[in-house]
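S.,

Sequence below, as promised.
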Amino acid sequence: MTRKRGLSSDDIHIEYEELDETKRKIMRLVGSVKADETSFGPLSTGEKIAVALVMDRTDWLRDYGTILQAVDRLGEKWLDAALAVQRDM
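The prediction came back faster than expected:
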């Protein structure tokens, strides 16, 4: 996570809590998808992209343009969390 200028320690604490919450969510989603890779189930676009990136399944990103377009669509918070999940695997 990149630290933004002008953030108080409370703001940074909130950002880390949000990252941890998003990371836990992605970990649960990856576990569900690993259990049945034939179906994503009712995931949002961002959730699908995060799971695909964590599992290194670029074939699941075809509906979202290029890999970079998919990453851009994911956003910074979800990308940071997905990277953290993949590092922990």
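The chain has one domain: 9-36+43-88.

Coffee later?
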